[in-house]
Design goal:
This protein is α/β, with parallel strands linked by helices. It has 22 helices and 20 strands. The C terminus is likely disordered.
Length: 567
């Protein structure tokens, strides 16, 4: 359905035309005509990015009587950022309506300024529950004549502990009001609000799981060794030089950790987490919106209310516990018909979760190989060339051209190009020329004992899972039997009956000397340098103890191999 076919105020249609709004989304197509014609309550299940702000906002604006200098509608939302975003959108929709006033009220800002704005007469109020309740108690906001109440992202508001505030606000409104409830999910708490406060609501449910992700490409990268996770993130970013995205982490600590590493490694990144003050948070979000930051590392809670339309990537550094949260994350990219990519950096334990996600979104999540150094270098090089070719020539440079030409006259065209590329491109070449492959297949081969990382020596120890050995036990053994109690330990691979570990090569003699024979949990143990296993070795034999070590941990003489005679 086209917006021109919907019976909206001509000034609203004019604004929509200026905004290049042509086709209504499924949720808008169902909600707007219904709300224009009826005063009935409405429940709409829709994800972020499906156009729900216009779905409830356009009918509210259409019903405003600008002569009445009082709140006619109130929209409750979970965060300051979403409050400001909704207000901004509504002001754009109403840009051609004279004298309409839309007022955002939220915590962390000067309450006196908000009180003055309300006193001047506001037609639509957009607010967070805590600040709305505060202004109600101060008698600066009256809702007894309110005509419509919108609960936007109702499930998020309840998750954030606003249930009592919402109850208090709704109880202070008149009984004839219309309630519009918009939510991504319908948990028991949201259902309870609908039963307690809504009157025979109409229910609209678009195919929300697919609507939010239908234009997306869903990929995952399998990381065999969790220690490589950050390096995989780096490679994904380097493979996509123009990336503009959000990296989602599970905890604040991890969020700050990853962000700090990215900044230290030269990436244009920052973090958004619960430890930031409101001014710091606003500063980071504004810089990200204005694309001064390429990568925003955030937790789910911290990213609520962040509304950016041009994201190219969403990267799940960790998968969330609930499929709906993954959909909510992914829905932040691929908006307004643009292509978006949702990426999962996964481990083997995520396989079942990925299968579950595929069923939920009704789409395949494609496994991608971790980018190799050569591929990254080529992608970065082509991006550099594109930047050179597409850059505008500054006219002010003309006066310097003769001096420049004189300076480079000894270089031919090919040599000049080599010099230029080398100058701009040396960081990537030097880094990726010296790193090992971390693709899943390569890591599988390495974990079977074939090759240690550069600068590390790989050792074999006759303890494994059946001896209750864990990585922390092995680290403790290494530190207990060496002078340096803080050796940098590389990969650890614990098999059923034995294990491998890596330490810097300069500790090789000390390890072999001090851990040649020792006791651990009543087992006789020993360490020796790991020998490379040939490509044709039978993988089933790799999990057997080496000759000279029996399963129980006692050293024995190796058995002589024998070959059955042919008859």
């Amino acid at each position: 359905m086209k917006f021109s076919e919907i019976k909206l105020n001509k000034n609203i249609l004019k604004s929509l035309k200026e905004l290049d709004f042509k086709e209504a989304t499924p949720v808008q197509e169902q909600a707007i005509p219904f709300l224009l014609e009826k005063n009935q309550d409405l429940i709409s299940l829709a994800q972020t990015g499906t156009g729900k702000t216009a779905a409830f906002g356009l009918p509210l604006i259409n019903k405003v009587d600008v002569k009445k200098k009082r709140p006619q509608s109130i929209i409750l939302c979970p965060t300051r950022e979403l409050c400001l975003q909704i207000s901004k959108d509504l002001n754009l929709f109403a840009s051609n309506i004279k004298d309409i006033r839309i007022t955002p009220i939220y915590g962390g800002s000067d309450i006196r300024k908000q009180m003055r704005e309300l006193k001047m007469g506001s037609h639509i109020v957009v607010g967070t529950p805590g600040r709305v309740l505060d202004l109600l108690k101060r008698k600066n906001l009256e809702l007894n004549k309110i005509e419509s109440v919108v609960l936007d992202e109702a499930d998020e508001m309840l998750n954030m502990g606003f249930k009592e505030d919402i109850d208090s606000i709704l109880e202070g409104t008149n009984s004839k009001k219309q309630i519009l409830l918009f939510s991504a999910t319908m948990p028991k708490e949201v259902l309870k609000i609908s039963k307690n406060y809504m009157n025979k609501p109409k229910k609209i449910e678009v195919d929300s799981a697919n609507e939010g992700v239908k234009d997306l490409e869903h990929n995952y990268y399998l990381v065999v060794n969790l220690r490589d996770k950050y390096q995989v993130l780096r490679r994904i970013c380097d493979m996509n030089p123009n990336i503009y995205g959000i990296v989602f982490c599970r905890t604040r600590r991890e969020c700050k950790d990853i962000s700090n590493k990215l900044v230290q490694d030269g990436y244009n990144a920052d973090s958004l987490n619960g430890d930031l003050s409101q001014p710091q948070r606003d500063h980071v979000m504004n810089r990200f919106r204005e694309k001064h930051i390429q990568l925003l590392v955030a937790t789910d809670v911290a990213a609520r209310g962040l509304d950016v339309n041009d994201l190219s990537h969403v990267i799940n550094y960790n998968l969330p516990d609930e499929n709906q949260i993954y959909i909510h994350r992914s829905g932040r990219t691929g908006r307004a018909g643009k292509k978006g990519i949702s990426i999962i950096i996964s481990s083997n334990r995520d396989r079942r979760k990925i299968k579950s996600l595929e069923k939920t979104i009704n789409k395949e999540i494609i496994k991608k190989e971790i980018p190799k150094g050569n591929d990254i270098c080529e992608a970065q090089l082509m991006n550099l060339i594109d930047r050179i070719v597409n850059s505008e020539v500054n006219k002010d440079i003309e006066k310097f051209i003769p001096s420049i030409m004189d300076k480079i006259s000894h270089l031919n065209r090919e040599d000049l190009l080599k010099q230029l590329v080398s100058l701009e491109f040396s960081r990537f070449l030097s880094f990726y020329n010296n790193v090992s492959d971390i693709s899943s297949e390569e890591r599988k081969r390495n974990s079977n004992g074939r090759k240690a990382e550069k600068g590390f020596s790989r050792f074999f120890i006759n303890l494994g899972k059946k001896h209750d050995l864990r990585p922390q036990n092995l680290i403790g053994i290494i530190n207990d039997y060496t002078k340096n109690k803080d050796i940098s330990i590389g990969k650890i691979d614990i098999m059923q009956g034995f294990s491998f570990f890596e330490v810097p090569t300069n500790y090789e003699k000390e390890i072999l000397s001090n851990l040649k024979k020792f006791m651990w949990n009543n087992y006789k143990c020993g360490v020796e340098l790991s020998k490379a296993i040939s490509e044709n070795s039978n993988s089933r034999n790799r999990d057997k103890p080496r000759k000279g070590f029996r399963k129980g941990g006692k050293r024995t003489k190796p058995r002589k191999s024998f070959r059955r005679k042919r008859r």
